Amino acid sequence: MSPAAHEVVIGARRLAIVGVGLMGGSLAAALRGARFVDRIVGVDEDPRSLGTAHAHGLIDDMQDLEAAVAEADLVVLATPLGALPGLLARLSRCLPARAVVTDMGSAKQPVAEVARALGLTRFVPGHPMAGGECSGPAAARADLFAGRSVILTPTETTDDEAVRAVQTMWTAAGARVVMADAATHDRLVAYTSHLPHLLAFACAELLAEYAPAEALAPFTGAGLKDFLRIAGSDPVMWRDICAANAASLAPALAAYAERLAGYSERVACGDFEGLLGHFAKARAFRADLMRRSTHGEH
Amino acid sequence: MSPAAHEVVIGARRLAIVGVGLMGGSLAAALRGARFVDRIVGVDEDPRSLGTAHAHGLIDDMQDLEAAVAEADLVVLATPLGALPGLLARLSRCLPARAVVTDMGSAKQPVAEVARALGLTRFVPGHPMAGGECSGPAAARADLFAGRSVILTPTETTDDEAVRAVQTMWTAAGARVVMADAATHDRLVAYTSHLPHLLAFACAELLAEYAPAEALAPFTGAGLKDFLRIAGSDPVMWRDICAANAASLAPALAAYAERLAGYSERVACGDFEGLLGHFAKARAFRADLMRRSTHGEH
């Protein structure tokens, strides 16, 4: 019998984190708190982020990518999605044979394909279902991933030992690891994450066109605030996610538009009992989903 | 010079609250805390709500509508929208001449029209922009309305003294009173509240049709949780709101569908820079709106 995931000894005690923002910084804090790592090296284009991460004790040292990777057992790419293809190309030229690499990108098929094309068999595509409104290493929290799911999407060419190493790392950070194939991941997050972001952006933009903020403000309640929270997300990051997952996002948008047209039709023809049926079904499913998810009601 | 609103002596010390749920109970708690009332009588079809409200010290006594109103200076209708026409009709037959009436309904034109048709000139249509996920008098909080806006939509036939009395009451409860005409109110809340609720219900229903909750749960993050929170609202209440404000909701839905079709078009043709422009505009407006609203970021 193989040992349980958390018992696998991987010797991955030297960690390189590329992108020391909220996500990378929080992973550093969690792994340090769990005594999973001996040494963490930070890599970031922004020297201020590196300085903050170092001042907060998240990283021991800062180096450029090539130097950081040369000494690392485990490399975590915690950058925005758009930076991943370039980073993977650089890693394919400098990664030591022993090192394992994973990422945190919100769409998995394009990243997995780039890694496969580059022959990076020890790259394990990953996506933690966690985040926050704030960004930057000063917002990092050791419990950001506690109880949250992390999706790993290895391909048939991904090294099994590498998968176990990444699984062990996330378990040490307190996350629940879920395995999926990249296509399934991308289809499901198109519905659970990418579509809702577009819906929130579209609603905020519609409000912008409809009336000035000072006119709408007195008519704004806590419900709208929560609904629009994700429209506060970084536009560049979401441009890149939409580009990376357009193939799954397009049918999700079409299905939503059809559903909404059904609601409009019922409003237009005064079929409010029909609307009630939709609302009741929606509410029941939401309650069930929240009960089952790690971000439940309580 | 007329005295400031909060200085107006209205002699409204005997309050009847019809519907002692979260909203009515919270108003009772706030007004009692502010020593605005001497005596609060609760009216509710549900004897358990009355019992809980009494046990929590929110109401001094419980009576039927006619008895409660006979002794009241101020009557607050804190029931769902659907119950208001029937209650107003009953009030038109039993309301003492001195008593002032207001409501908390989410759509104002239909209620205002019913009151005008009944000759209830001392009825002041109102809508507090506050609420909560929980319902019932046990969830009542004295600060539910603190800093929140309350929209009042008197018509040309509404008695001025009645308007001042309701204004004074809400100010005592800690709310910020905003005057608007009913048509403007209904158009604006169609965009800021009713449309977002329908969008969230439609998203939750789409998820229900797409995959089982157990399959989606690992792919569910905090963003979706916030986005779907309002899809946890009471379906019957929202059926009634849609019915009451269909005239304003229909064009808001149409405008949203058009906006979303623009997003879909950009996704389909790969115009991600165009999407970025939409997202940036949406994000900036959201930040401005939240800064100006009483439910701001901080």
From TrEMBL, chains A, B:
GO biological process, one term: tyrosine biosynthetic process
An example molecular function term from Gene Ontology annotations: prephenate dehydrogenase (NADP+) activity
Superkingdom of the organism of origin: Bacteria
Xref: SUPFAM superfamilies: 6-phosphogluconate dehydrogenase C-terminal domain-like, NAD(P)-binding Rossmann-fold domains
Pfam families hit by this protein: PDH_C, PDH_N
Protein name: Prephenate dehydrogenase/arogenate dehydrogenase family protein
